[in-house]
Amino acid sequence: MEFEAVIGLEVHVHMDTKTKMFCSCKIEYDAPPNTNVCPVCMALPGSLPVINKRAVEYGIRTSLALNCNINLTSIMARKHYFYPDLPKGYQISQYEKPLAEHGFVLLENKKVRIRRLHLEEDAGKNNHYENSSLVDLNRAGTPLMEIVTEPDINSSEEAKEFLEKLRAIVRYAGVSKADMEKGQLRCDVNVSLRPKGSKELGTRVEVKNVNSFKFVQKAIEYEIERQKAILLEGKSVEQETRGFDPQSGKTFVMRTKEEAEDYRYFKDPDLLPLILSEELLKNIKDNMPELPDERIERFMRDYGLSRYEASVLTNFKELGDFFQEATEYTKEYKALSNWLLNDVLGFMNENQIEEIPITPEHLAKLVELIKKDVISTKIAKEVIKDMLISKKDPDIIIEEKGLKQISNEDEIKAVVISVLEKFPQERERLKNGEEKLIGFLVGEVMKLTKGKANPKLVNKLIRECL
Amino acid sequence: MLYKESASKLLEEKVKPSEILEAFLRRKEELEPKIRAYVTDIYEKAYDSAKALDSQTPKGKLFGIPIAIKDNINIEGYTTTCSSKMLQNYVSVYDATVIRKLKQEGAIIVGKTNMDEFAMGSSTEYSAFFQTKNPWNLDFVPGGSSGGSAASVGANMVPLALGSDTGGSIRQPASFCGVIGLKPTYGRVSRYGLVAFASSLDQIGPFGRYTKDVALLLEVISGHDPKDSTSANVEVPAFSKNLKPRTELKVGIPKEFMSYKIDKEVEESFKNFVKFLEDNKATVKEISLPHIEYAIPVYYIIAPAEASSNLARFDGVRYGYRTKDFKDIFELYAKTRDEGFGPEVKRRIMLGTYVLSSGYYEAYYGKALAVKNLIKKEFLDALKDVDVIISPTSPTPPFRFGEKLNDPISMYLSDIFTVSVNLAELPAISIPSGFTKNGLPIGVQIIGRAFDEQTLLDLSYAWELNYPHYDYISNV
Ligand SMILES: [Zn+2]
């Protein structure tokens, strides 16, 4: 029997606000333990939460970017469970009335519907040692958005594509850096299988807290295989919550259905309903930053890039921003994109570098130097390698290494003549129409000029001097 | 004797702060060993502070006036115990908003007062530490949960005190101790720094023996606070300056209230108050609040539900009591909470946890919220027609220690006239209306329109000019 995987994602995204969701403590990712805390986020008796308006705005921006309907009234609710990193004994979240619902994200070949987006706060961190555990509440109260998809995803590749797109969207919307390494984007994965063609949903297994795109893919692949094996044996899949072990690449049981927690959600009486005005929504709409799909279209339209190029430049926002800035220094858009996507990105991938090591202005200058025949493409390859390591201005590299193209006819002519004298036979054969020998002779001239001779001039002069 | 005077008069006459404090300190030294109103007594330190104020030019509305604070309100540097083993050694690191305001106006805090554990109770018998006695008869309870604050004012150990009221916890002990107690409109006073019992019902409010003092204290603690999202952004009237005797009002008496079993002497005292109103140009009429009979069950769903959530933070991880031996985190939680909380608190946490459980939520909590809104609406409709609604504060005079301890329901019924006011989010005041023939105080409750505390104070003022209850001094 053939099976189809039905996958839904719950993605938690840290919002990039300066302060926490319900107090004015700073958000820092590497501060010493328990230094960004106050009575509110430590849940001292008598303290009260006050909602961070900027976080609400970011939630709205994201909702708009995900094509959601925004609820003008939404309710903050308490979700109860006991855990040392959860100081109040409940998390403030949204339950019955979330901030936004019914959106979608367009993938290459599919539309993934968004069920809801709601606001909540993050918990702290438990650090475990040999004989003790210590709680760090710096992260407690960090503003989060939880984005829940409908079960519209059918493979691990699609899940990855969705997450990449979502990451790009929140980055473009300017609401999160969505860095998985820093836990700014975390994912719960719901996987079920059903016979191909069936409309009914199978029993759902939730894999909690998967922390990288790669692990999401692996967890899904593992779950599909595990569930398939169970179903093929004629048994049924248990509804349960599982964890993912990155070391083994396997999922494992965390909680069975019977052990499922009752969170006892109810409206938080410390916070009034979140009521949004049409005016505020309009204001946010009018000031929305450019979103990924818009950028792809614009790059294709304005710079003549292919959809593939535009997509890569969009998905890696920093690369796209770099490109955008570089267009202010050159009109050679296509060449710019080529150099960026091949040489710069290639170098970064090879050396596992996150940040682009050169400036947009320098790359644009390199492209212009080629265009103006100051250096050949071949020399340029050498120059960019240097640039990526030394971060120097290409002009300086060319100057220092004496790589400037020789376009002085007399200078080149002297070399041409010496080469022709050195290879009289080849000279004759070319004269007699054996055209392929021009390449050989040009090559010899280039050798002697260390590649700096203007190839067009060399060609011309060889023919003249025959 | 200075301790008999009103704070307003002491301020007016510019009595030296140290003289004022000394008078109350002496009175405290005499009575506190019998009454035991204070969990934390800082009179000596307060005296030093008063001394320091003597040489200063008076500034602030409560300059040099002693005040007692219920022990569920945070004061930086002092314990906030909530009369619970759970917080016995918990020292606050910040001031509640009301405390900040009191300090700004020059008030001097003399101590933290005893209460029912986490404000759950109506007799202060549920304090984990000790009983507080009624200042009129030591065999009787002072009421609760703000029993310490009410008793301290009732015994003239302090002219003013703060309490908190979730279902009657200011008004009922005020009536039991023969003082004035006012529960402000929900949102009038910031809850920031008040240890939450039931967040949607809790309000901090003043105790005093003179209406003018109560008005002054209310004026000081009221106002919008950005730290409390539920605090209302409405103007605070100059309650004390505006104060004028006023009885020419339309007054409603809910017939449903009068159908409850009410103690004879309480009923007589209430009728006497009604007669005073009628004799002084008030129009008194019967009104109906049909759903008010559900107030007690609704309250005992909503308040425990919120309490079960609010008290989840007392887990032994970060502060407060922690059990000695535990094998894992879950045993740490279970034993800490089992050993740290008293029986009434546990009863309410269990009740609250139950009514919020999935499968029961709609039948209990959801339904209770719906009835709460109905009750609120009935009050608001009634108050379109009348200016105030009156009732006895409690159906009985103070009861004896132990009398209701084994019967939670009869204890809960002690608040039968007061809880509906919290559900309706309205202001209400309890004023002394008389004494039983055994010399125990009785109070009447006046309920007003939202944010119209002024009318309650004006009527209270008119009453005390007719019946100067503050002239009675407890002598135990
Ligand atoms: Zn904080």
Please, could you describe this protein's structure?
The complex is a heterodimer of chains A (466) and B (476). Chain A is an alpha+beta fold and 466 residues long. Helix content of chain A is 40%, strand content 20%. In chain A, a hairpin with a 4-residue loop joins strand 6 and strand 7. Chain B has one domain: Amidase signature (AS) enzymes (Alpha-Beta Complex), CATH 3.90.1300. Chain B is of the alpha/beta class and 476 residues long. Chain B is globular and about 65 Å long. The model of chain B has no long low-confidence stretch (mean pLDDT 96). Chain B has helices at 7-12, 17-35, 43-54, 97-104, 147-154, 171-177, 211-221, 239-242, 255-258, 264-279, 295-310, 329-340, 343-356, 362-385, 408-412, 419-424, 453-466, and strands at 38-41, 66-70, 108-113, 160-165, 180-183, 203-208, 250-254, 283-287, 388-392, 428-435, 441-447. Bound molecules: zinc ion (ZN). Zinc ion (ZN) binds next to loops of chain A.
| Number of continuous helical runs of chain B | 17
- Poorly predicted ranges of chain A (pLDDT <50, ≥5 residues)? none
Give the count of structural domains of chain B.
Answer: 1
Bound molecules: zinc ion
Portion in helices of chain B: 25-40%
Average pLDDT value of chain B?
Answer: 96
In CATH's first tier, which class of chain B applies?
A: Alpha Beta
Give the biggest beta sheet of chain A. Answer: 9 strands, mixed
Strand order of the largest sheet of chain A: 2-6-7-10-1-11-12-13-14
Question: Any chance you could write out the topology, listing elements then pairs?
Answer:
The complex is a heterodimer of chains A (466) and B (476).
Chain A: E1 3-14, H1 53-65, E2 69-70, E3 73-74, E4 76-80, E5 90-94, E6 100-106, E7 111-121, E8 125-128, E9 133-136, E10 143-149, H2 156-172, E11 185-195, E12 205-210, H3 213-232, E13 240-245, E14 250-256, E15 266-267, E16 274-275, H4 278-286, H5 292-303, H6 307-315, H7 317-326, H8 333-351, H9 360-371, H10 377-390, H11 394-401, H12 409-422, H13 424-431, H14 437-448, H15 455-465
Parallel strand pairs in A: 12-13
Antiparallel strand pairs in A: 1-10, 1-11, 2-6, 3-16, 4-5, 4-15, 6-7, 7-10, 8-9, 11-12, 13-14
Helix pairs in contact in A: 2-3, 5-6, 6-7, 7-9, 9-10, 12-14, 12-15, 14-15
Chain B: H1 7-12, H2 17-35, E1 38-41, H3 43-54, E2 66-70, H4 97-104, E3 108-113, H5 147-154, E4 160-165, H6 171-177, E5 180-183, E6 203-208, H7 211-221, H8 239-242, E7 250-254, H9 255-258, H10 264-279, E8 283-287, H11 295-310, H12 329-340, H13 343-356, H14 362-385, E9 388-392, H15 408-412, H16 419-424, E10 428-435, E11 441-447, H17 453-466
Parallel strand pairs in B: 2-3, 2-4, 7-8, 7-9
Antiparallel strand pairs in B: 1-3, 4-6, 5-6, 5-10, 9-11, 10-11
Zinc ion (ZN) is lined by residues 20, 23, 25, 37-38, 40-41, 141 of chain A.
